[in-house]
Write a structure and sequence with these properties.
252 residues, 2 domains, two-stranded antiparallel ribbon
């Protein structure tokens, strides 16, 4: 990763790991802005932003199904983030995110008791966020949903809706209704995003042929371009660390 960009990621322990993918931060330590392109990764992100020339703000990003062009990391800008798995939408946020697909919404500056001061120490931020999320953990979870997401994540999206329906004893129609109402996309679309995300790990290593469940090389190239805007070869080059998600895979 660009030497001016400082990145760190921490994975949660159980029981948070069912709801939280990771805590991470990104610090642009240079005096100039960095232009980046965001890629779909199947996560819900809670961002805390801070920079010398912009006010502190907290933003919730919904699911992405396409690249986000020209996201700017401001000079000396700092981002602390909690990346959530989908179960968190219903059981932690107790809300729906169907209205912010490929978009986000501004949250109150005191959301969950966070303040600008929390961006001074990442370890303390993780500790505070962990305690807050633990206080919101549900007493019970619909076991069909728990099993559904276990299978989706374990297979990295490489499983059909029919297979999922049979394994969790929940009709395909009901699953898709749940996905569209809660998250704003179909289950199949979400699985395609996860499969793309899994492929990034291989592309970051220079493996430009399908390692996941793609029909053939042409299908692989087509899907990668659909989600990233470029072919696998261009993704691997990752000029100027344009794709931060891809850069993070080679820095951890």
């Amino acid at each position: 990763m660009d030497n001016d960009l400082h990145y760190k990621l921490v994975k949660p322990d159980k029981p948070l790991s069912e709801f939280v993918d990771s805590f991470w931060f990104l610090h642009n330590q240079s005096a100039s802005n960095k232009e980046t392109t965001g890629l779909p990764d199947g996560r819900i992100d809670l961002f805390l932003f801070q920079s010398p020339n912009e006010p502190f703000r907290i933003v919730l990003l919904g699911l992405g199904t396409q690249q986000h062009e020209s996201a700017t990391i401001l000079a000396n800008g700092l981002i602390f983030s909690i990346s959530f798995k989908l179960l968190a939408v219903e059981y932690i946020f107790r809300d729906t995110i169907s209205d912010i697909v490929n978009n986000g919404k501004l949250l109150p500056n005191d959301f969950w008791g966070f303040t600008e001061n929390d961006l001074q120490d990442f370890d303390l931020f993780v500790e505070k966020a962990t305690q807050k999320i633990k206080s919101l953990l549900p007493n019970e979870i619909d076991e069909r949903k728990r099993k559904l997401f276990e299978l989706i994540y374990a297979t990295k999206g490489g499983i059909t809706v029919k297979e999922l329906s049979e394994k969790v004893f929940w009709s395909s129609r009901q699953i898709n209704r749940y996905f569209n109402q809660q998250f704003g996309i179909s289950l199949k679309s979400y699985c395609n995003v996860l499969r793309f995300r899994a492929s990034l790990e291989h592309i970051a290593q220079g493996k430009l042929f399908p390692e996941e469940n793609f029909a053939d090389q042409n299908h692989f190239i087509k899907e990668i371009k659909k989600f990233s805007g470029v072919v696998p070869k261009e993704l691997f080059k990752n000029k100027n660390d344009r794709f931060i998600l891809l850069s993070s895979l080679t820095s951890t």
